């Protein structure tokens, strides 16, 4: 079976996605599900959940930020080689008594609560995510065990704009913070054996030391041409190769034209389609632990050159995730 596989909405029955994963698919793309177009319209162009997020200023973002939290609320994440986006992140599940969705955070925007229209959007995302989860499971699922997350991700328009944002944040920081960002940048550049969880931090520190740093950077450069580390010269890596850790499944849709998401399989990278008529589904670490299906290694890239002509796209990604309900209840 191809590493990138398709499934149509009528075929979204029990265990069909799981069968595709076990047959060798790394990403399964759900196509032509009418709920997907409705969901993208509601989140990208509607007057609800994302309407005040897409045009928001950094001060609006700060107003909806939860101190110490990067998984929920409004978030600014710009770390060299790891993150490069603004995000609104929500988690929700239906109240077993009222049927109304319990949402965390319980509001977004200034003096705003979740309206009936937005409750309908949560219902749309919930039904879609639970149908996908059931199709990715070997047994009937208990809906009360799960919660769904939505992340609205807004990216820069080019690698140059991304670098300008990184420079702005760095120049607004203290001297020690700037040193920390240098270490982050060095850690993000680690390849081969230097890329493992603990080795990359040691590499990052030592690579900045005169003398030994030059030797380590030279050794690291030898791994840059491997298929795993290679990327086209016209693109810049925003998020290094990784697997998602806190979710069972990751699902991507949206509307963007300067960002790409790729997955690694059979010795090469393949682009994942991200558009309003496709929901790209792939396993995360929690799913690997429960099914034995390996979590999909993926990365994010951005074009080095800006777009030549203005386009209607917001360069936006919608990420839908499935997590255990206890993960969300702990925050309520």
Task: Write up what this structure looks like.
It is a single chain. The chain has ten helices and 13 strands. It is of the alpha+beta class and 332 residues long. A hairpin with a 2-residue loop joins strand 9 and strand 10. Helix 2 (34-45) crosses helix 4 and helix 6 (175-188) crosses helix 7 (199-206). The chain is globular and about 65 Å long. The N and C termini lie far apart (42 Å).
Write the layout of secondary structure elements.
Elements: E1 4-8, H1 16-22, E2 27-31, H2 34-45, H3 58-63, E3 73-79, E4 83-94, E5 101-104, H4 116-135, E6 146-154, H5 159-171, H6 175-188, H7 199-206, H8 212-221, E7 235-242, E8 249-255, E9 259-265, E10 268-272, E11 278-283, H9 285-291, E12 298-303, E13 316-324, H10 325-329
Parallel strand pairs: 1-2
Antiparallel strand pairs: 2-11, 3-4, 4-5, 4-6, 6-13, 7-12, 8-11, 8-13, 9-10, 9-12
Helix pairs in contact: 2-4, 6-7
Structure described in brief:
This protein is of the alpha+beta class. 31% of the residues lie in helices and 27% in strands.
Q: Please indicate the percent range of residues in DSSP E strands (runs of 2 or more).
A: 25-35%
| CATH fold-level assignment of the largest domain | Jelly Rolls
- N- and C-termini, Cα separation: 42 Å
Largest sheet: 9 strands, mixed
Going by CATH, the architecture of the largest domain would be: Sandwich
Q: Give Rg in angstroms.
A: 20 Å
Q: How would you name the CATH homologous superfamily of the largest domain? A: B-lactam Antibiotic, Isopenicillin N Synthase, Chain
Poorly predicted regions: none
Helix content: 25-40%
Pairing-aware structural class of the strands and helices? alpha+beta
Shape: globular
**Count of the domains:** 2
CATH level 1 name of the largest domain: Mainly Beta
Mean pLDDT: 89
Number of continuous helical runs? 10
| Topology, number of strands | 13
Give the SSE string.
Answer: EHEHHEEEHEHHHHEEEEEHEEH
């Amino acid at each position: 079976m191809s590493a990138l596989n398709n499934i149509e909405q009528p075929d979204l029955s029990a265990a069909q996605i799981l069968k595709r994963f076990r047959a060798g698919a790394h990403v399964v793309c759900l196509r032509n599900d009418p709920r997907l177009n409705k969901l993208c319209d509601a989140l990208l162009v509607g007057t609800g959940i994302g309407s005040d997020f897409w045009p928001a200023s950094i001060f609006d973002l700060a107003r909806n930020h939860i101190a110490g939290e990067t998984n929920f609320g409004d978030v600014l994440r710009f770390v060299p080689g790891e993150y490069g986006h603004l995000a609104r992140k929500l988690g929700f599940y239906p109240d077993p008594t009222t049927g109304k969705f319990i949402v965390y955070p319980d509001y977004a925007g200034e003096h705003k609560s979740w309206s009936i229209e937005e409750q309908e959007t949560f219902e749309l995302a919930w039904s879609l995510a639970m149908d996908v989860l059931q199709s990715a499971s070997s047994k009937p699922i208990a809906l009360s065990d799960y919660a769904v997350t939505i992340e609205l991700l807004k990216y820069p328009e080019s690698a140059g704009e991304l670098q300008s944002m990184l420079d702005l944040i760095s120049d607004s920081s203290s001297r020690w913070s700037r040193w920390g960002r240098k270490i982050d940048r060095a850690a993000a550049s680690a390849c081969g054996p230097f890329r493992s969880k603990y080795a990359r931090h040691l590499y990052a520190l030592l690579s900045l030391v005169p003398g030994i740093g030059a030797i380590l950077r030279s050794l690291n450069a030898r791994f840059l041409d491997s298929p795993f580390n290679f990327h086209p010269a016209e693109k810049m890596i925003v998020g290094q190769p990784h697997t998602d850790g806190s979710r069972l499944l990751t699902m991507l849709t949206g509307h963007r034209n300067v960002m790409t998401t790729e997955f690694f399989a059979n010795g090469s990278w393949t682009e994942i389609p991200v558009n309003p008529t496709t929901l790209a589904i792939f396993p995360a670490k929690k799913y690997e632990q429960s099914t034995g299906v390996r979590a999909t290694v993926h990365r994010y890239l951005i074009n080095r050159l800006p777009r030549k002509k203005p386009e209607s796209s917001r360069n936006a990604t919608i990420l839908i995730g499935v997590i255990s309900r206890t993960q969300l209840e702990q925050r309520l």
